[in-house]
Amino acid sequence: MKHRNAGIQSQQHQLSIGRRVRQVHAAEFFNVLTGPQLLQKTEAYLPEHRERLYPPTETLSMFMKQVLSADGSCQKAVNDWAARRVADGLSVRSIRTGAYCRVRQRLPLEMITELTRETGRLLSERAQMRWRWRGRTVKLVDGTGISMPDTEQNQERYPQPSSQSKGVGFPAAQVLGVICLSTGAVLQAAIAPRWGQGNSELGLLRSLESAFSPGDVVLADSLYCSYFAVAELLAAGVDIVFEQHGGRITDFRRGLSLGKLDHLVHWKKTKNRPSWMTRQQYDSLPGYITVREVKVGNRVLVTTLEQREVCKREVNKLYQRR
Fold first, then answer.
1. Secondary structure in 3-state letters for the chain
2. Where are the domains of the chain?
């Protein structure tokens, strides 16, 4: 009954956030960006600008509201801005979108990136204990491929697939995010060209190791279920719940049985050192790691959570929340 009530509270929490997002105004984002917790970070990344109709903080606030709006058009963003100015007794020269769009394109990427990380950190730290899983912070890891605007800069940085003729394809990138399960806030993110050594989702995960703290629990799909990924997270004091990789055979007749379709097994370190790993990094990892494999339905999950603390059904329920 306790876990059922926790699930109901989690759903109610998500619905509440959704309603709040639909009601929020750009002015509220502006107040947050210029409030005491983010002001110093915001000012550190402000570009040189004149105090015109769309200063950077005002533009970023409008952009955030635009992204969250059901009508994500620039015209709607400008119309809302104009309506607020009129309500405040200020003049509105024009509701054309050109000026807003030009200023929005000049927003520094570093400013948006750092503010995203900082707000994610603040939200995660303030998450109520009842939002957490057994009092622990759970972080989701996932990635996806995206197409980029077809500009010369993007084509150079994120080249299109080599199989496509030049000029007929869009630049392609790989994006990976680390997300707080309790709040839904993005804590860290990385982007790289879609193809090339070190640009895989696992490669991006290695670049975000600072996103994890001892005691965290990480949820991810089967792509991340490798010896090296798990070993490095274990070394950082992090527990994992991953889906089993399709290339690894799970045999419950082996290892130390913990119950029906639930056992402990050793994963050995491969003799071949990955090209991205230094000799020192390779030698620092143990010859094998002990993981727990459980099967619920048609899914095999790999975890480092102990059976005496978490039964396999609870492991599966946690994985499903991703």
1. CHHHHHHHHHHHHHHHHHHHHHHCCHHHHHHHHCCCCCHHHHHHCCCCCCCCCCCHHHHHHHHHHHHHCCCCCHHHHHHHHHHHHHHCCCCCCCCCCHHHHHHHHCCCHHHHHHHHHHHHHHHHHCCCHHHCECCECEEEEEEEEEECCCCHHHHHHCCCCCCCCCCCCCCEEEEEEEEECCCCCEEEEEEEECCCCCCCHHHHHHHCHHHCCCCCEEEECHHHCCHHHHHHHHHCCCEEEEECCCCCCCCCCCCEEEECCEEEEEEECCCCCCCCCCHHHHHHCCCEEEEEEEEECCEEEEECCCCCCCCHHHHHHHHHCC
2. 2-110, 140-202, 212-322
